[in-house]
Design a protein that fits this description.
With 215 residues, the protein is of the alpha/beta class. It contains 7 helices and 8 strands.
């Protein structure tokens, strides 16, 4: 008889993902498009935090994503900071038509370093890719920035839905890999201790002659 409970059957992985970035860059829009396939051009600032849940398939494994949309205004930072704890991954968003929002990515990465566990996966997300005519930061500049910091980068449009699902599925794949590596016990190699001519042979243990001893 199987001992799996209902939750075990519903998903194989549960990941808490934070979406952070300046106010107005489209954090809420990307979450709404991903969770509800919905887009609204009307801007409403997030008050504190909000979250949505969606389960997706990653290499035949069900991943339940609990995605938290955070307020970008400074006045909410003291509230939002507590939600970094326990995050399995963080999406840092900026608007490709807003140069300052890209420059502020450094500040958001510092927030991740300050409040999240060490080596928490980060995904850099450029929003509003449908507005190429208004673009203020070149793709090559952003990609070089991401590569220098060894983080992945993707451009999305919540309005057209371009790369939104791909963004979350790619990040979930990275989180699965990170989770599996974290759970894997480290391999322990038995040390080889060389014996010199001046070393008396051990006769009451596990070494009998030879030039080395495995313990």
């Amino acid at each position: 008889m199987s001992t799996n409970n209902v939750n075990d059957v519903e998903y194989n992985y549960l990941f808490k993902i934070l979406i952070i970035g300046d106010s107005g860059v489209g954090k809420t829009a990307i979450l709404q498009r991903f969770s509800q396939n919905y887009f609204s051009a009307e801007y409403l600032a997030t008050i504190g935090v909000d979250f949505q849940i969606r389960t997706i398939d990653v290499n035949s494994k069900l991943c339940k994503l609990q995605v938290w949309d955070t307020a970008g205004q400074d006045r909410f930072k003291c509230v939002v900071s507590s939600f970094y704890r326990g995050a399995h991954g963080v999406m840092v968003c900026f608007d490709i038509t807003d140069l300052q929002s890209f420059r502020n990515v450094n500040n958001w990465l510092e927030e991740v370093k300050r409040y999240c566990q060490e080596n928490t996966p980060v995904y850099l997300v450029g929003t509003k890719s449908d507005l190429q005519a208004k673009r203020m930061v070149t793709y090559s500049t952003i990609k070089a920035y991401a590569d220098e910091r060894n983080i992945s980068y993707i451009e999305t449009s919540s309005k057209t839905s371009e790369n939104v699902d791909n963004c979350f599925s790619t990040f979930a794949t990275e989180l699965v890999k990170h989770s599996d590596e974290w759970k894997r016990p480290p391999s322990i190699e038995k040390p080889i201790i060389p014996l010199s001519n001046d070393t008396n042979p051990v006769t009451n243990g596990g070494c009998f002659g030879g030039k080395s001893c495995t313990i």
